[in-house]
Design goal:
Elements: E1 2-9, E2 16-20, E3 25-30, H1 34-45, E4 48-52, H2 59-67, H3 85-93, E5 103-104, H4 105-111, H5 118-126, E6 139-140, H6 153-162, H7 178-182
Parallel strand pairs: 1-4, 5-6
Antiparallel strand pairs: 1-2, 2-3
Helix pairs in contact: 4-5
Length: 184
């Protein structure tokens, strides 16, 4: 049985739960999604015990720094999300999307070398056990819309805004003049 340490921190997005084995970050979840996070954590690490702790592995400090504007504060954290080889490739691949940038699910699947696995990448992205640190919020719809964030789309929008992301402008065809519609 693995022993985990849990901290709870306040953030602009509500209370966040942080689970670490003392050196390696294992899970980050929003407190109002604790049941989901616990299920994912159990699947990833198996039987475990949880002890309350302050700043296990420095993860709490890194998240607080991120929320204060240090967008690279999470980069140095050591992570272990568990999962299959495919899941790990997707989750760890998220770390290569820089703050302030986004990729569509299709572009992300192509970057991972599995361009036809867009749906599998999307499902796996939704099972991310280390929210925010593995920035699944940086994956968006092909048309630039915010889709599919387990913590809620309001949080996804907040995180992207915090990172300085500017939504793409949707290009529309110019409207024809009324006379142009009937000219032949």
């Amino acid at each position: 049985m693995i022993r985990l340490f849990r901290d709870r921190i306040e953030s602009p997005l509500g209370e966040i739960l942080i689970f670490s084995d003392g050196t390696t970050l294992r899970a980050v979840e929003f407190a109002d999604y604790e049941h989901r996070g616990t299920a994912l954590l159990t699947k990833a690490v198996g039987p475990h015990s949880v002890t309350a702790a302050t700043d296990p592995g420095g993860a709490s400090s890194a998240l607080k720094a991120y929320f204060k504007g240090d967008l690279q504060a999470l980069d140095a954290l050591t992570l272990e999300p568990g999962g299959t080889a495919f899941q790990r490739a997707v989750w760890l691949g998220l770390r290569h999307i820089p703050a302030g940038e986004t990729l569509s699910y299709g572009a992300f699947a192509a970057r991972l070398g599995v361009p036809k696995a867009v749906r599998a990448v999307g499902r796996t992205n939704g099972l991310n056990p280390i929210a925010i640190v593995l920035p699944c919020h940086r994956v968006i719809g092909a048309n630039g819309t915010l889709t599919g964030y387990a913590g809620g789309l309001d949080r996804k929008a907040w995180l992207l805004d915090h990172e300085g992301w500017t939504p793409p402008k949707v290009r529309r065809a110019p409207k024809p003049a009324m006379g142009d519609l009937f000219d032949s």
